[in-house]
Amino acid sequence: GTAIISLKLIRPWNKPPRLLVTSRAQIHSISLWRCETDKITLCSDCLGLRDPYCVWDKSTHKCMAAINGRKILQGNELIQSISSGTHPECMGELLNKTEQENMSRSHKSEMDSNNGTEDGEDTSSDRSDVGKVCSDPWQFVGSDCVLIVESELLTWPEARDACKHVNGYLAEPTDFQILINFISENYNFEMESGKYLLGASDIEIEDEWRYAASGQLVPNHIWGFGEPNNYQEQDCMCLWNSQKYGAIVADTWCNRQYKYVCQKGAVVPP
């Protein structure tokens, strides 16, 4: 496993306590009660709930909450990395597989952007976005049209409505890294003032992040290091230029005003 750097018990008002575990591998937070439900009987189930906030109890062979009061339960192993190989029942290859898939997608996207393969073979006929365009002031980013709005700062609900008003929706990027690179290269991506609102939130159900337009669940792998952390009730998605980790996908406050990104599909001109 990976060494723990810090532990912090968070007690939001009128909500269950949460344990924030910081390690070099990952930072996540889940509700503690989810570690000890009757439905969680396997190590893989525990990991599916964004471990490391659960421990694997060797005596009962069940997952349990990683704290007892404010103390770490002694004698139990705090699982910190699903790729550690110490627990074959913990789907130890899942993280590596995800990383390999992400690298493969990134490599394919890079090749597609050059309209060919590494050997120079033209693959443009295989691309579904060939010939599609975006009307001004929308810009073609990845496979979609996006509208980067910096001229007005809006709350998340206001930005969602503003995107609808221009026949789009608050952005649900197909490839977050392409959007991050585009904004970083072409816009003033500063620290706090540089946040750009995107189209997901967990307003309806805490810890269940969904895109507002499509209703789809947000994949866990898109989040930046330590995100989403629900710091002081952050329930809406944004791009944030973190001082420590660079530009990442993070959660932010829904009622504060930020820049925002609208999105709509590219079209083939008549």
From TrEMBL:
Subcellular compartments: Membrane
Region (Disordered): 99-130
Domain C-type lectin stretches: 141-263
Main location: membrane
Compositional bias of kind Basic and acidic residues: 99-111
S-adenosyl-L-methionine as UniProt keyword: no
One Pfam short name: PSI
PANTHER family assigned to the protein according to its UniProt record, in alphabetical order: SEMAPHORIN, SEMAPHORIN-1A
The protein, known as: Semaphorin-1A
